[in-house]
Amino acid sequence: MYENFVEEVDAVDNGISQWAEGEPRYCCDYRHDHHAQPTLNLLAILSLFQVDPSGEIVELAKGGCPWKEHLYHLESGLSPPVAIIFVIYTDQAGQWRVQCVPKEPHSFQSRLPLPEPWRGLRDEALDQVSGIPGCIFVHASGFIGGHRTREGALNMARATLAQRSYLPQMS
């Protein structure tokens, strides 16, 4: 059980790369839709400016399928160049997530984390501080947040983009 499932989930959760010198560190075979993911991610990139005029927010209509590995490659081919800052998607319960894009593929540093005052808050407390009703949570590090609706998740991302000049920039 550990080698066939737990090891993989634990490694992905802790940002450990699957590959080391040509040999996989763990097996990643629990996702049956992995062949469709690059296509789904490409479609999300193509609709970039429909989600938000900034082009900095991607929506994954099929939920939180793996996107990080493909995003950097697809992003490099955009013309004009755009740095994608957030990905929004539904979770398994049908609620929405707003996830910050890491600076690099296996980094825990976000290009732009959710605002410091929101971090670690939940529900009504987060609604009050953010001014966005329907919030669920923001992780203590600011890399991900949750909302009950698509529009709310989009508003969380947009509010963060609007505050970016006031947020400390990560080097």
From TrEMBL:
It comes from the Eukaryota. GO terms for cellular component: cytoplasm; nucleus. Belongs to the MYG1 family. PANTHER family: METAL DEPENDENT HYDROLASE - RELATED, MYG1 EXONUCLEASE. This is Uncharacterized protein. It comes from Colobus angolensis palliatus.
